[in-house]
Amino acid sequence: MRQLALDAPSSTCCHSCLRACSRPKLHSARYKQFTSAYTQRVHTNKRRCHRRVSAQTDNGGEQTPPSAAATPVPRDDDVLPDSLGDALQQASDATALAIEKGANRCIVEILLPEFWDPASGPVFAEEGDQQRFWKLTRRFIDSLAQGRNSKNIKAIYPDMGVAAMLKNQWPDAGFNFASLSDRKPVSEDDDLIVLAAPDPQGLEAVKKATAAAETVAPIILFNPRLASGDAGVGLNVRRLTKQFTSTFTTSYSLRPVADVGSVFRRYPGQWQVFVEDPSMEPGRYLLAAERPTRPAGTVYHHCYFADLHAIYMCLGALL
User: Which of 93, 157, 268, 276 lies 20 to 30 Å (CA to CA) from residue 232?
Assistant: First the structure.
């Protein structure tokens, strides 16, 4: 399995990562569970690989033709990424395909439970989390640039401080830096524009940047959180935000549901809801629902239950 090093073991993401709790206060305990489950998954895969090799060479020392050897049965959850690097590669491939098919406004969501809370957005509970979070944007942009062979890519960050800090830390970056607070964040010579983790406070600036990019280049929202969960935000504001984001194509989404499932979409496929499979080793999931549109928000915000039965009840509206 491909792995992505982000200077800390917590950056690794696999099927088992989706079991980690998305609430920061349970971070340490859930991360230990994730590490144990991930290790068990790796050893299980190694044993399977050894059995396949043994089956091929067990015929009196002669190698059995590949067609005669036992092959694993495909599962629905094979579409899920095996690592964080795999997820970023899937996201860049799906986004490049969506743009090629004419989708000039895309959304990419890779919401790791370690860094993300569905209600409040990015959460940096440990030292260095913020840097690892921003490194996700660079890996995604680098991968997308290779797939599209784009030369003038611009990454637009939420504020000038973040943009200046990252520009100083990444002098070898193959893209340009800007912030939503710049007077003109979008330039005429931009080939591709990525808005990194925009938040509700920058919604109006995101709308202006999107309008400016309309005739310039495709624009991608990477891990956006434009809808505020604050009680003081009116329904009309939420409705207008939803109306704006509906003009985008979600080219890739990997979002945890509580600590026992995930919602997944890879363009041009459908939205899929996975829940933990208790009959298999840790890290395997059952396909609970599949539909052409994004599942209802209740799946994300109200499924904070620890047992599989509660998750199925929460997903009942989708089935």
Answer: 157
Task: Name every residue whose Cβ is closer than 8 Å to that of residue 186 and which is 6 or more positions away in sequence.
Answer: 154, 156, 178, 193, 209, 212, 213, 216, 217
Give pLDDT tens digits for 33-42. Answer: 444 444 444 3
Query: What average pLDDT does this structure show over 54-83?
Result: 66
How many angstroms separate the CA atoms of 166 and 277, rounded? 41
Mean pLDDT of 59-82: 70
Q: Which residues face 117 on adjacent strands?
A: 121
3-state secondary structure of 276: strand
- 45: tokens are 């895969």
The pLDDT of residue 268 is: 96
Residues 181-225 pLDDT 10s = 999 999 999 999 999 999 888 999 999 999 999 999 999 999 998
Give the CB-side neighbour count of residue 152, counting CA atoms within 13 A: 9
The DSSP result for 168-213, as a single string, is: HH-TT-SSEEEETTSS----TT-SEEEEES--GGGHHHHHHHHHHH
- Order across the sheet with 249-257: list the strands: 176-179, 153-157, 192-196, 219-222, 105-110, 249-257, 261-266, 271-276, 285-291
Angle at 204 between CA 249 and CA 153, to 5 degrees: 55
Look up tokens 């995101």; give the residue. Answer: 206
Cα 78 to Cα 36, 157, 285: the distances in Å are 21, 33, 9
18: its two tokens: 């989706």
Instruction: Please count the other Cβ atoms lying within 10 Å of the Cβ belonging to residue 200.
Output: 18
Number of Cβ within a 10 Å radius of residue 146: 13
Report long-range pairs for 94-97 (Cβ below 8 Å, ≥24 apart).
94/251, 94/252, 94/266, 94/267, 95/144, 95/220, 95/251, 95/252, 95/267, 96/144, 96/147, 96/148, 97/251, 97/267, 97/268
